[in-house]
Amino acid sequence: GDSVTQMEGPVTLSEEAFLTINCTYTATGYPSLFWYVQYPGEGLQLLLKATKADDKGSNKGFEATYRKETTSFHLEKGSVQVSDSAVYFCALSEKTSGSRLTFGEGTQLTVNP
Amino acid sequence: DTGVSQDPRHKITKRGQNVTFRCDPISEHNRLYWYRQTLGQGPEFLTYFQNEAQLEKSRLLSDRFSAERPKGSFSTLEIQRTEQGDSAMYLCASSLGSGANEQFFGPGTRLTVL
Question: Which of B27, B18, B32, B29 lies closest to B75, judged by CA?
Answer without folding.
Answer: B32
